[in-house]
Amino acid sequence: MLGLLVERGVCHETETRPKRSESTADLNTLRAFMDELAAQTWWKYRDGHSLGLAPAEESVTDSNLLELHRRFPQLAVRRLTKSAEKRVGADWEWWVGSASDGWLCLRIQAKRINDSGYPMLDHPGFEDDDRQYEALIRSCQDTHFFPYHVFYNGWERTRFRASDGALDDRTVLENNPSWPHTEPPPFLIADVDPHRLPEVRMVRPDGRELVWWGCAAMSTYRVAELHSVTKQRNYAPRYLARAMPWSRLFATRPNEGLPGVDPFVFVEAGLLNRIHYLLLSDTVAAGGAVRDIDKVSVAPDGIEELQGRRISQLPDYARAILRGRAAPQRFDEAFFEAELAPATYTIVTDLTRFFEGRGVDRQW
């Protein structure tokens, strides 16, 4: 069944598909919804900047994680404490895996756009660290952790106009190797010509529309590299050039072909192994030190090595959240001040509760 949904004056085509059991969800739909949240985040900062109403990182994180859980109750989400954030260097942890295949964890620091860049990247770290992102990298030395930044973006069209009239943000995006995980939804457009009958057709916008980078993810190793210069170290287009839409944190297919990887073997490797392999590849490309990366593959003889990089059991707090029994008051301060204390928020995604459908049930 096809339908039309009008959003911001644009008419989108939607398709209604039979729902599976409410206990499971389509991973494609999750990624599409993450793209939608990115677009909403973009509009919040674009429209709020001139009014002095641009939201703080914490407000956007609260909103996005709440909406993710409301749309996908399969995601176990809890807000825990702020006491460990400085030590760990992360705003939230995102655990991904299953009891049978093990678990990996994304530790994520959020930074919002402020005028022309991200001045809070200069935020000091913990103890001897020069920067907060260095604390984040140090907290992710175990092989099942991945440090990432998510930048909250949004600005009016002419904010980054260069002296020669070029638009810096759009120029760098043309060469960005990443795409949003899902293709942009089609919309109706009418060609009105007074000399002939109007023509109405379905078209797709450029997949590199800036709104898909409203929540833009980047390996913290690359953030550290870009921030190490002395000139324009916080300038947003420098980061936009290498960031990816945050939906690609759950990518199961590469933007382009992976050298030396049989695509048929890759598809058969399973959801978690494909997500894990692409995160490893991105970490290595960003300059992160991944031990014995040459031994890791998604071929049958390499799956065991890949699984060996994950932990077999969730930590107690994440396991309690997954079971739906966690509450902030059940943990005392000593728990949060421990060496491996969690970040402010924790999300647990048990991939046995997700399947990967062929299509995307668009919600916008």
Account of the 3D structure:
InterPro entries: DUF6615 (IPR046723). Pfam families: DUF6615 (PF20320). With 364 residues, the chain is α/β, with parallel strands linked by helices. It has one domain (33-179, 206-354). The protein has helices spanning 27-49, 57-71, 85-88, 132-138, 168-174, 220-227, 236-240, 263-267, 271-285, 303-307, 316-322, 333-336; strands at 2-7, 10-15, 25-26, 76-79, 92-98, 102-112, 145-152, 187-191, 199-203, 215-219, 244-245, 345-350, 354-355. The strands form four sheets. Strands 4-12-5-6-7-10-11 form a seven-stranded mixed β-sheet, sandwiched between helices. β6, α4 and β7 form a beta-alpha-beta unit. The longest helix is centred in the N-terminal third of the chain and has 23 residues, at 27-49. The two termini are 16 Å apart. Residues 1-21, 184-193, 200-204 and 360-364 have low confidence and may be disordered.
